[in-house]
Amino acid sequence: MAIDTTTYAVPLARTISDMREQVASWRAAGEKIALVPTMGALHEGHLSLIEVAKAHGATKAIVSIFVNPTQFGPGEDFDAYPRTEATDAEKLVDRADLIFAPNGSEMYPDGYGTTVSVKGVTNTLEGEARPTHFDGVATVVSKLLLAALPDCAVFGEKDYQQLLTIRRMVTDLRIPVEILGGPILREPDGLAMSSRNVYLTETERKAAGQLNVILKETADAITNGADLKTATADAESKLLELGFDKVDYLTVRDTTTLQPVEKLAEEARILVAAKIGQPRLLDNMPVEFRG
Ligand code: PAF
Q1: Which of 22, 40, 208, 267 has the least CB density, counted as fewest CB within 10 Å?
Q2: Which residue range(s) make up the domain with 262?
Q3: Which tens digits make up the pLDDT trace of 79-108?
Q4: Which ligand 1 atom minimizes the distance to the CA of 156?
């Protein structure tokens, strides 16, 4: 195969060897290469990650599009996950220099038997709710990083635990890549952008817009001295009253270990996962400590 320059306006690689060839020639020309891993269904949040890479000095951006089967658990939305490669490619015009969109067997060769498993930071929150999820993420991200060997790779802070997991993995495996976090991009009412927001009905979408409002109110109350347990329990009750079906967690955690915080003694992070209708919404933000 070779890089495909006719299907979309942005060059497309379907194989690791094609992508590597392109990366090698960029590197020889002194370019600084960024990788933005995605599962497609691109929105402004993804596009902002390319901007983060460029602001950090990247001169070439590769966006990978791969709906990774191993990070979906049984009964999750792998089959239904939106696959919109052509519209994704349009959004990347003048933004990305290469799309890497491999098929399943390029990423998981026949008989594959290797899983990357990160301990510690994955043992809680999403790791409890979705026990195989982070193995799938760590495995595919390590493959993508080793395939592209970029100078930097960017991941959104909306999946805060994922970002910490990837940082841990890259440190542990000594993968020579700089991991950058991109701030959460929000809709006008503050709902964190997510490819899964398309699953929300009109009524659910309205209630979903309150998630960040309640999270912010709770974070501010805790900063101002409110009892942490009471404040988070109140926030959970408000979400259920608003029509959320289930709150998996709404909790204040240490910013790097994600261990529970009993009493605020330094900046922490408040994180939530709550189900409304079909999607499970994630959000998080810092909880300031004013000493
Ligand atoms: O955040 C995502 O979209 C995915 O988890 C990632 C990092 C692209 C791995 O499949």
Answers
A1: 267
A2: 195-287
A3: 999 999 999 999 999 999 999 999 999 999
A4: 1
